[in-house]
Design goal:
The complex is a heterodimer of chains A (311) and B (505).
Chain A lengths: L1 E7 L5 H8 L5 H7 L2 E5 L9 H9 L5 E7 L2 E2 L10 E2 L2 E2 H8 L3 E7 L1 H5 L12 E2 L3 E2 L2 E2 L16 E3 L6 H12 L13 H4 L10 H5 L65 E2 L2 E2 L8 H14 L2 H4 L6
Parallel strand pairs in A: 1-2, 1-3, 3-7, 7-11
Antiparallel strand pairs in A: 4-8, 5-6, 9-10, 12-13
Chain B lengths: L2 E8 L6 E8 L2 E9 L5 H5 L7 H4 L8 H16 L5 H27 L14 H8 L5 H21 L8 E2 L2 E2 L5 H23 L3 H5 L4 H9 L2 H5 L1 H11 L12 E3 L2 E3 L6 E3 L2 E4 L4 E3 L6 E4 L11 E2 L22 E4 L5 E2 L1 H7 L3 H10 L3 H27 L18 E9 L2 E10 L2 E8 L1 H5 L11 H6 L11 H9 L16 E3 L3
Parallel strand pairs in B: 6-14
Antiparallel strand pairs in B: 1-2, 1-18, 2-3, 4-5, 6-9, 7-8, 9-10, 11-12, 11-13, 15-16, 16-17
The chains are: A alpha/beta (311), B alpha+beta (505).
């Protein structure tokens, strides 16, 4: 049985809602089939009180196997942490107390991983992630911090994190499966594909047929701010809510699994150098990309140029 | 007489909440509702491109992101004089109705009814039945609710790509049209949720249940059949009324709604907007200029009286140890304390059953929660009607490009009913970027602190006067507070080290 303490800090509860939306595995199955025991979850625990759980864990009477943190870590005002409190105590102090006791610490969502939406300029609450502040290693716990398992904070990034990524990661940790991490400490099993992979607008991108107005059928990468070709996330390899993804539905990918989400620039506009996006698909050389695009455009079939194909 | 101040923490989704209560001989004589989290969204919006509000503000709330997206979109359309096509309005409505329905069902069966399994009720004759239905993660109704709500938000994903947190509403329409495939998927999802609702939640035919027009008719209908009596709403009603929840937790009588299911032609909503004045018992037309926000007891830079959101400011100023006690502001409607949510929506719309119950028993814990189930039933039909309207519009445009390079200067607002009630976004644009953004959430109305004339907020009011027989397990407070839909289970408890005992009057 793996004991989970799930704590919300500066959060919107989106990752908790995503947890309730997971279907492979579902939260019911997580509890029943994967030996996961929610010692504390703010929206699921019925009878215990947070104070009891805190006391039991701090005194060593009960153990935490997995500590999940949902939300940004509010450092302000003036380093006091008082923008986010539990019974007058700064939540960041409680997180600092609990983290060393847990076998694994998981940042559930981009806020706990990298600071997230609350850390957007001007970062009014002086908030940060657990082990990163945007791209900079550090955060609340510092770059060298390791949990009892020897791992850094596991970043299940996303705003919110993908429902089935949340439950799969918890099931894997509960069953002591190895969980290799990428350079941003995200579990590679879920962050080794791009949002672009599996996007149903791919054929439009392939032939360089780009929309410059929202609401259309073609690719949104060149003009409408879509970051699908740069964003590592499972959104199009494991669909959302059993149905779709943002890019399939004509919503640009805003790169919400990335440390710099949300960027300061206009989120619906792609910054460009000349006619080509400033930031290219991950790892692509500019000159070669431009040559490919010119050829691609020339090869585009009429049905694609005329946007006859449904994404 | 001994006076004791106790702290109660409420674990919830949408920001954290605590109550501080003054008890005199076991009776609550004063209550302070404390918002313990400040996130600074209104400051983050300043200086950003106007459309960024469609990405940033849904992230205020993981449960009501669709409502925030809708309000932000309406505000942008208003400032630029954009009229969205009917096709888009119906899709927006369908998604918001789905989000609201999922919230009503989860709030009831994941957050409210688990309290009925509290050990304090272990010897109640209904205890076994309650546990079979409502035990967390295991109860039959709970499992049905988890499954149905997962399916429901799939409707938002069909049109918007994902739930929570998408951005498929745009000034001028929506990102992707409805088509017959998507509509059939939605219809089919809705049909299976309706089937579960009829079988498990009401134990009977939905239309028949919705046609009940008085308290007496409801109780007769329930008593006439064991299936209805044993259903989730039957069990909930029998038990809640047996422990007296219909006599507990009366707050303010003034009710506010911004209207549900906006009509595309701008002629109003299926459940109309309005203000129910408890003094005159009349519904008055909604006037957003009546809204103002006070900060006299909040941790924000002070200003006298209340300010309309267009003039509003949100400058944090944490002052512990003073008579300021919360990160929430105190919104008022014409300086009156109001409550908002399904009870308000249905009373303002003149639903005969809710109107009768409110008139005869007043605002109470059971009724607020029952109104949420009543609205859930209503939403099922409203969604079905919306899908039907959409079928006729699939070949009409879903998006009309407003062709805006630089957004015009101006002030505007967007007002919708979120799951928890009245939600408004007010914004000012200057030089093409957002100059000011103010958001008044439903929970801000309900959970507000005292205002500058000392009036308590609705939740505070609903607790003052309550007798708390066992301060170690104050389960009554849990029932009352959760019936306000504070977004999540509230674990209500008293911590010894926080007690301050005064010996005064």
């Amino acid at each position: 049985m793996a004991n989970i303490v799930w704590m919300q800090t500066g959060a919107c509860s989106g990752d908790t809602m995503a947890l309730l939306c997971a279907d492979r595995p579902s939260i019911e199955n997580l509890a029943q089939l994967y030996s996961v025991n929610f010692l504390w979850h703010p929206s699921l625990t019925a009878e215990r009180r947070f104070g009891d759980v805190l006391e039991a864990v701090l005194s060593g009477r009960e153990t935490i196997d997995i500590l999940c943190i949902e939300g940004s870590l509010m450092i302000g005002p003036d380093g006091s942490g008082l923008y986010d409190t539990w019974k007058g105590r700064a939540k960041i102090d409680i997180v600092r107390q609990l983290a060393p006791l847990a076998r694994h610490v998981v940042a559930m969502g981009t806020c706990a991983a990298f600071g997230g939406v609350h850390a957007a300029s001007p970062n009014p609450t002086d908030c940060t992630g657990l082990q990163f502040m945007k791209n900079e290693p550090g955060g609340l716990l510092g770059p060298d911090w390791r949990s009892r398992s020897g791992l850094p904070v596991i970043n299940v990034a996303g705003c919110p994190a993908h429902p089935n990524t949340i439950t799969k990661v918890l099931a894997m940790l509960a069953e002591n499966e190895p969980l290799p991490l990428d350079a941003l400490n995200r579990p590679s099993a879920f962050f080794a594909s791009l949002v672009h992979q599996g996007c149903t607008r791919n054929e439009y991108h392939e032939y360089d047929i780009e929309d410059d107005v929202l609401g259309g059928r073609a690719c949104m990468f060149f003009s409408l701010g879509c970051r699908g070709p740069q964003t590592e996330a499972p959104c199009n390899t494991e669909l959302w809510n059993g149905h779709s993804s943002k890019t399939r539905a004509g919503v640009p990918c805003f790169g919400c699994t990335s440390p710099d989400f949300p960027s300061d620039r206009d989120l619906f506009v792609t910054p460009k150098i000349g006619a080509v996006p400033k930031f290219l698909p991950l790892g692509v050389a500019r000159a070669k990309y431009m040559a490919y695009k010119n050829l691609a455009r020339a090869a585009a079939p009429e049905r694609v140029v005329k946007r006859e194909m449904e994404p | 007489m001994s006076r004791v101040t106790v702290d109660i923490d409420l674990n919830r989704v949408e920001g954290d909440l605590e109550f501080q209560l003054d008890l005199e001989d076991g009776v609550v004589v004063d209550a302070r509702c404390i918002g313990t989290l400040y996130r600074g969204f209104e400051q983050i919006m300043i200086g950003r491109a106007p459309r960024d509000s469609l990405v940033i503000t849904p992230r205020i709330c993981g449960i009501c992101g669709t409502a925030h997206l809708y309000a932000a979109t309406l505000a942008l359309e208003q400032v630029a004089g954009i009229t969205p096509p009917a096709h888009a309005v119906h899709v927006r409505n369908l998604c918001l109705l789905a989000e609201t329905l999922q919230s009503d069902l989860r709030q009831t069966f994941l957050f409210f009814t688990p309290d009925f399994c509290n050990p304090i009720y272990g010897s109640h004759p209904l205890a076994a039945e309650l546990s079979e239905a409502f035990a967390p993660l295991k109860g039959s109704v709970v499992r049905g609710c988890l499954k149905s709500t997962r399916e429901l938000v799939g409707i938002v994903a069909i049109f918007g790509g994902q739930w929570p947190h998408s951005t498929y509403m745009l000034p001028g329409g929506i990102s992707q049209p409805a088509n017959n495939r998507r509509l059939l998927d939605s219809r089919d999802t809705l049909a299976s949720v309706r089937q579960w609702f009829e079988q498990s939640v009401i134990g009977g035919d939905l239309d028949e249940w919705l046609a009940l027009d008085s308290g007496a008719a409801l109780f007769r209908w329930l008593a006439a059949s064991p299936t209805r009596n044993r259903s989730a709403s039957g069990l909930f009603t029998r038990f809640a009324r047996d422990i007296g929840l219909h006599q507990l937790g009366s707050g303010t009588g003034h009710l506010l709604s911004y209207g549900v299911n906006h009509r595309p032609d701008g002629s109003g909503s299926e459940l109309p907007a309005g203000f129910f004045n408890a003094d005159t018992q009349q519904v008055e037309p909604l006037d957003h200029l009546q809204i103002n926000e006070h900060v006299r007891h909040s941790w924000f830079l002070d200003y006298p009286g209340g300010k309309h959101p267009w003039q509003g400011e949100t400058i944090p100023n944490h002052q512990p140890g003073t008579d300021r006690y919360t990160w929430a502001k105190a919104p008022r409607y014409g300086n009156r304390v109001v409550q908002t949510g399904p009870l308000a929506e249905l009373r303002i719309a003149g639903d005969p059953l809710i109107t009768d119950l409110l008139t005869s028993e007043g605002d109470n814990t059971w009724l607020r929660q029952f109104a949420r189930l009543r609205r859930a039933g209503w939403l099922l039909n409203s969604m079905a009607g919306t899908i039907k309207s959409l079928k006729a519009l699939v070949n009409e445009p879903h998006f009309l490009d407003p062709g805006i390079d630089v957004w015009p200067d101006g002030e505007s607002y967007g007002m919708v009913e979120a799951a928890r009630g009245a939600l408004g976004h007010w914004l000012c644009i200057k030089n093409g970027v957002i100059e000011k953004y103010q958001i008044v959430t439903p929970t801000a109305w309900n959970a507000s602190p005292r205002d500058s004339s000392g009036q308590h907020g609705h939740w505070e009011r609903s607790i003052i006067g309550l007798t708390v027989p066992d301060p170690e397990n104050p389960v009554e407070i849990g029932h009352i507070v959760r019936s306000h839909d504070p977004c999540l289970v509230c674990t209500v408890h008293f911590i010894g080290s926080h007690k301050k005992t005064h010996f005064n009057v």
